[in-house]
């Protein structure tokens, strides 16, 4: 009997074909709608592998419902949607896709930074709404990017790729990370500092940390109050790293200048979310890695992780490599 793979969302055709050549595939055939929990719990009963993504929760109930599961892989670098401890307890490898999305996500982070600093979405609305009367000295004036100080919280691969872009804009680069990264300091001229100093000194505060219990609500009222009034906050990591109410207050009361957000505490956010009332907020719907080329690579890598898991081989990138005993 062929192994069954459950795919929780419609994925690019080449990745689907790769899997169909080797297994029976159930795919939730929607690009936007989430698979209902009861459908997922039903389909995984005889599944050998699950191909998932950022928004579909692979929790304890899913593991309980799938006694034959041998591999889980997510089409993402972040894996906070998966109960990894539960997978590890059952000896099931969990795969993810670091590396292939680094530069693309750094591009989005920098675009959000620039769009927020120079108020591009507001300017676009201004023109479309017929409000453009003439050239005007202080019309839609924003903040300079070049030569400013950028503070990167979380100097992983993506943080480094953002720093490389910042270097091209002659920015001073500060970073905060769990551990110091001497090679990133030497290569990029970045300077390590404590979070408090980073917040006090930076014109741009970029949150790049993964979602863990240590980073939950890392940015709260106190942190926003330390930032400069002219400073801009960018988050392309996870919404749970931020106290959204504190962020809203800081923006509303102009205690910080603006924010660019690709991620939210609850996704999707509703159109009546208070943050969307504010002109000094630029938003995107969690599209950090969304280039055609990169999303295709991520899907192929996830498929490869699944196939390796089914063959009992080590995945290309395993989150819980302790299951292999090293
Ligand atoms: C997307 O957010 C990812 O973790 O890849
Ligand atoms: C992601 O690849 C990171 O390590 O930042």
Automatic annotation (TrEMBL):
Entry keywords, A to Z: Oxidoreductase
One GO molecular-function entry: NAD binding
Domain D-isomer specific 2-hydroxyacid dehydrogenase NAD-binding: 110-288
Coiled coil regions, renumbered to chain: none
Keyword DNA-binding tagged: no
Matches recorded under CDD domains: GDH
GO cellular component: cytosol
Keyword flag Oxidoreductase: yes
Cross-referenced Gene3D superfamilies: NAD(P)-binding Rossmann-like Domain
Residue ranges occupied by any D-isomer specific 2-hydroxyacid dehydrogenase catalytic domain in the UniProt entry: 5-320
Family membership: Belongs to the D-isomer specific 2-hydroxyacid dehydrogenase family.
Official protein name in the record: Glycerate dehydrogenase
UniProt source species: Brevibacillus borstelensis AK1
